[in-house]
C-alpha cells in the first residue's frame, strides 16, 4: 500500500508541474511557460581582439512565470555586457532594452587571449551568457 501511495503522489506532482510549465518536466528540457526565457546571440561568433561584435536578444520582458526582474516589479530597461575569460570579467558596456529587445555592439578588448570566452549580459540579480571564440 505504501508503494502505491508513493506512486500516486509522484504522479500528481508530475502532472501538476507539467501543467505549470506548459511543457516537459524532464531535465534538460526547455521551459515553455506563458513566456519564453530571453534569447541572446552574438555575431560573428568568432572575433579577434579589437574587433566589434553585435549582441542581440529578444524576449527581455517581464512575464508572470519568467520575469527578467526576479522581484517581478518592472521590466529591465538596461543591462551590462561583460567579457568573461579564465575566471576574470571585464565590463564592455551597457545595452538598452526597448520593447523586449536588445541590440548593441561591443569591442573585444585588445588584450583578450585567444580561446573560449563568454559574453555575460544582465544585472546583479540575473545574467545570461553567450559563447564567443577569441582568435589571433
Automatic annotation (TrEMBL):
Keywords: Signal. PROSITE patterns: PROKAR_LIPOPROTEIN (PS51257). Residues 1-18 form the signal peptide. This is Bacterial spore germination immunoglobulin-like domain-containing protein. It comes from Microbacterium gawkjiense. The lineage of its organism: Bacteria, Bacillati, Actinomycetota, Actinomycetes, Micrococcales.
